[in-house]
Amino acid sequence: MAFKAADISEDKRLASALLSTLRAHGASGLFSVLECTAKSHKPDGKAKLRAIHSSTRHPFKPGMLWVASLLRRKLKTLNHLVKDSFELASFLKSKRFPADIKFVKIDIREFFMSGKHHELAEHTRKTLNEVAPEFSDLATAMTAFILETQYVKNPETQDRVQVIQGSGMGLDFAGEVSDNSL
Asked: Going edge to edge, which strands form the sheet with 31-38?
């Protein structure tokens, strides 16, 4: 999927915002830095490292934030999604449940690294056609482009690898793109 710069030139403010990080940092942030963090809330012996694609200087950061904000219009209406364990705890504290109720937890291993890029972009298109049809083509093209040109580098060796699947935990729209595909 391709789009032309002329597609965004009609809205100068949007174009300026989308290009602000690129102007500030150039292409230096195009390669996300691979960082590993431990899930410290896990019981002893169960903590695992998770790979974060740190993208604080990504040239398309404003674009990712924009797509995320558009997707949140739909995601906030879905009551089966919770932002984090604090939101879940708050919800549970506010309700009364029968003593015999059973809860089911679904945790998708490597959630952010699941899904083919074209499928994630197509899910984005379907949602945006519903909540922001005027931006659907541009935001979908941007999503596909960012996902398909996703690279991470090892900060120790400077080795770079292309991410060929998933939204990459650490990209500024990864949560929304992944949640939108559930």
From this structure: 49-54, 31-38, 151-153, 160-162
